[in-house]
Amino acid sequence: MAKLKLALYWAASCGGCDVALLDINEKILDVAEIADIVFWPIAMDFKYDDIAAIQDGAIDVCLFNGAVRNSEQEEIARLLRVKSKVLVAFGSCACFGGIPALANFTSRDEIIKYSYIEAPSNDNPDKTLPQEITEVDEGKLELPELYNTVKTLSQVVPVEYYLPGCPPPVSLIIELVNDLADNKLPAPGSTIASDKTVCDECPLKKENKCISRIYRPQEIIPDGERCLLEQGLICCGPATRGGCGAACIKAGMPCRGCFGPPAGIIDQGAKLVSAIASIYEVVNEEEITKMVDEIVDPAGTFYRFGLADSILKRRQS
Amino acid sequence: MSFEPKIVGFLCNWCSYGAADLAGTSRIKYPSNIRIIRVMCSGRIDPTFVLKAFEKGADGVLICGCHIGDCHYMEGNHKAARRIPLLKKMLVQLGIEDQRIRLEWCSAAEGERFATIVNDMTEQVRKLGPLNYSSGEVHG
User: Fold this and answer.
1) Which phi and psi (to 5°) does residue A225 adopt?
2) Which of A28, A89, A190, A311 is 20 to 30 A from B40, alpha carbon to alpha carbon?
């Protein structure tokens, strides 16, 4: 059998997804066995022109990590889409926007102003700002356009599979590699993870969902046995897709929601509002105000990874 | 043309929808800016519905249930009473003003009160102006 042609790309991401791929340890040899890597900017020196030169559809699988927040990333997403038979949104940023999509709480202008002028570590007396086009003696210099709104990969091009996680866990990457090797990929549009929630996989004891105070993670040490929500810690498990094996919870941290909404749910943040407010057992207005005050940053907590993929997608006006 | 706000009203079957009905049969006038959706209980209103309404072009969302203690399902309205304030706080962070969402209790005997609420809210949202929901496509 001819070897598969594999491409990997990073857009708006931290590089953790690329590292996760190496975390599959000796399984990487199987990848080398079944696939030739034709493009992987973090690890190998290929040029965009090399990709542009190959035939359309010549790449069998492209693992694309990172959100799309500038014109270069969009251009490469479109290019890789045309050149690839199967495009996988790899990691939470490509799937839902991820951490970079927290930029959707503000605007391009505010970000540039803070980063280049207001941030205390800046030394920019001339208030120089990055320009898309700069004329210099040698000619014209171009930079990609930074978008006002961070987008998910599937908001830019059609995507066959989603492999969520920040970063995607080794077990799911191996599942994908095995599916590729055996040519047994699931139906297009599938998410390579569980259809159930993190709570479904969570080993902690669930007794009575009823709380009267919310703690921030630094305020208490969980007892290691009972459901973190029941102990008053905000855990995104009830509205987050499983598949990670409750990795964070097993390490004593509440779920942060990186797998996005479970199957059939369109807005993770709305579901978390519903879940948390439902178990907070108070009736009178004063206590309700206390609850609202205790949840310091609901939007940032409930849309930590999913803002670009939510119903509102960004801050309005 | 002057701005006419679109308000989506989620009314519970047992009390608030009765109030709207009473307002109608009593020939009490209230603005036609409200589009009423009957649900079985204010506890049935998933915050997703409110977001959907804004996405589809609503400028305001009114949620009406039975008075606390009168819920047909015992404590559905208690859940709404907690969800909506938390949702409001989250939506303010997302640039949607507090006054665009309103949670009220209305018994089936309070037709007059229901009309007053709709009047008030319509004027409030009219002052705020259109929400102009945007997914950010235009700016790239």
Assistant:
1) -120, -45
2) A311
The answer to whether position A232 is within a domain reads yes
List of long-range contacts for A232-236, beta carbons under 8 Å, 24+ apart: A234/A276, A234/A295, A234/A301, A236/A198, A236/A268, A236/A272, A236/A301, A236/A302, A236/A304
- Proportion of chain B above pLDDT 70, given as a percent: 97
pLDDT at position A279, please?
Answer: 95
Give the model confidence (pLDDT) of B35-55 as tens digits: 999 999 999 999 999 999 999
State if pTM tops 0.80: yes
Residues A155 and A208 in one domain: no
Question: Is the Cβ pair B140, A149 closer than 8 Å?
Answer: yes
Q: Taking CB atoms and an 8 Å cut-off, how many pairs form between chains A and B?
A: 110
Q: Which domains does chain B have, with CATH numbers?
A: 7-128 (3.40.50.960)
Is the model's pLDDT at B139 over the cut of 60?
no
Residue ranges making up the domain that contains A118: 107-147
- Among the residues of A38-169, which ranges form H helices? 48-53, 71-83, 92-96, 108-113
Residues of chain A falling short of pLDDT 50:
none
**A147 interface with B at CB cutoff 8 Å:** yes
